[in-house]
Amino acid sequence: MSWLKGERIKGTEAKAQADQVASLTTAGWTSYAPAWTASSGTQPSLGNGSLTGRWRRPANADLVHVQIKLVPGSSTTFGGNIEWIFSLPIPAHANDLLMGNGFAQDTGTFYRPVTTKKATTSTFFVVSGVGGVGLVHATAPHTWASTDELNLQLTYQPA
Question: Is residue 16 part of a domain?
């Protein structure tokens, strides 16, 4: 909405503007438990590690924002050398690219950049262009161990 100088603003228009601004500036994050799987074969198991997620969709917005953090524990197993898949909190639009990035931390060694790739409308892969080039799994972009981290943020158009 926009108004011309001297134009009278209706109460409903002012409220709509205020609501839109509030939706973009209020916390509004909702926690969710992302599923962590492999596309086939031996599945990863969280054990005593932690996997947390949160998401938000501002009112009247056409985008969903998601943050995910995986911290393996001493009893976490990582599955085979088959790509990991994570679930989305709400389905993505079929034609959406699902843009995201983050880092894979090999504790005490490196922070490696990663990006996301949509697998289905409800799941996505993590891709690394450094180290083990390709989809992230038990030994790519490094051999995963306790206290390493995978931190992701992504944005997509909901279905």
Answer: no
Structure tokens at 22: 């509030």
Number of domains comprising the chain = 1
pLDDT (tens digit, 9 = 90+) per residue, 115-152?
999 999 999 999 987 655 689 999 999 999 999 999 99
Dihedrals phi, psi of 110, to nearest 5 degrees = -140, 155
85 assigned to some structural domain: yes
For residue 100, the SS3 value is strand
> Alpha-carbon distance 69 to 63, whole Å?
20
pTM of the model: 0.81
Query: What residue spans of the chain are helical by DSSP H?
Result: 11-25
Q: Which residues pair with 101 in a beta bridge?
A: 115, 153
Strands (DSSP E) contained in 33-92 are 36-38, 50-56, 64-71, 84-87
- Determine, yes or no, domain membership for 19: no
pLDDT digit string (tens) for 10-27? 666 666 666 666 555 556
What is the DSSP secondary structure assignment for residue 89, as one 8-state letter? Answer: S
CATH of the domain at 97: 2.60.90
